[in-house]
Amino acid sequence: MPVFAMTAARQILLKDYKPKSLLRLPDHTPVRARFPAIDAHNHLFNEIPPEELVRIMDAAGVSLWLNATGNVTLPLEGSTYTIARRPFSVFAEQYMMAYPGRFAAFTMAEFAQWDDFVLLKDDDFAARCIQTLEQDVDQGACGLKVTKELGLRFTDCRGKTVAVDDPRLAPVWDRAGALGLPVLIHVSDPVGFFLPVDEQNEHCATLQEFPAWSFADAPFGKHALLEQRNRLVARHRDTTFILPHVANHAEDLADVARLLDACPNAAIDFSARIDELGRQPYSAREFLVRYQDRVLFGLDMPVSEAAYRCYFRFLETHDEHFDYPDYIGRFGGCSRWKICGLDLPDAVLRKIYRDNALRLIPRLAE
User: In CATH, what number is assigned to the domain containing residue 183?
Assistant: First the structure.
């Protein structure tokens, strides 16, 4: 074969290289969770009806489903979602009251703003937020949820970005603690979301599909946001903070461990992050066993039997090299890499699936 033809063939192969794995491995995916599970971090994506949610829960062995954003609606538009505020009573009446014991919810209170990012319009925000929080608690809310807009998009009336640890918000965290309510606070996003969207970014394909998820030009960088959050947690020791997505730093478990060691009032969930943990199975298993009392189970994506069962496979089996759902619950071609199961001990599984949620979110037990 002429040299030029070999060169052209090599260029084509490199450009279109999408290998299909030839591995043949066993699949031990559980049909149901080994122990009754509490999905402690999810949202009512696209208004899935309660009867359909209960059907999926029963099929997968999920005993209780917690809507982290009980006073908003999250309609899917295309392959992403938007947020619109509505009364907490809607979810309480249509889900919690219709199926007692199967549904619970946090409230976003006055943090439920999407079309207006001026959060601190005046000096009374904290007072209004506490008032709404208490009203929603009276209707059954069992925690406060704060989205990543704090630190990334919310501003004050002068146009300045509101830091996560802004002292003007301190009364809200203190009141949540006094009420015995955990604060589920999402700060920042995967590391790659703060890097240039180029061929070296492992999230490049995701960010090309969802360009609004790129924060390369955000007012605060990734690590500055985490430092703000860590100061906040350290200052309010009487309030429990649940830091979702492995404290949004699953790429650096040693850093998360330092935070958990320093702040006994901090806990985590691993919702939407089995992709990160499953590519470092030895480190992830050691981490979850070590912090087994401070980890919650949650999906944080549109629910399906397949998504739940993949999470169970990750936690319960020693299966290798398998796919997982992406950030919006899709299977098939979404994996950036394959993951491995952790085969966690039963004692750890019981805590992660259920016991920790009942302890860290006290109103669930009520």
Answer: 3.20.20.140
Q: Are 270 and 251 in contact (CB under 8 A)?
A: no
Residue 226 belongs to some domain of the structure: yes
Q: Is 145 inside any structural domain?
A: yes
| CA 352 – CA 246 distance, rounded (Å) | 13
The number of distinct structural domains making up the chain is: 1
pLDDT tens across 53-108, in order?
999 999 999 999 999 999 999 877 766 677 889 999 999 999 999 999 999 999 99
- Is 28 part of a structural domain of the chain? no
For residues 7 and 119, what is the distance between their CA atoms, to the nearest angstrom? 58
Q: How many CB atoms lie within 10 A of CB 58?
A: 13
Give yes or no for a contact between 231 and 266, defined as CB atoms under 8 angstroms apart.
Answer: no
Token pair 């603690």 is found at 177
How far apart CA 193 and CA 213 sit, in angstroms, is 7
Residue whose C-alpha is closest to residue 136's, from 160, 159, 157, 105: 105
What residues have CB less than 8 Å from 65, skipping those under 6 apart?
A: 38, 39, 42, 53, 57, 102, 103, 104, 303
Cβ neighbors of 127 (< 8 A, separation 6 or more) are 171
Stated pTM of the model: 0.94
* Residues 176 and 239: beta-carbon distance below 8 Å: yes
Domain that holds residue 285: 33-365
Kindly report, residue by residue over 122-170, the tens digit of the pLDDT.
Answer: 999 999 999 999 999 999 999 999 999 999 999 999 999 999 999 999 9
Question: Does residue 144 fall inside a structural domain?
Answer: yes
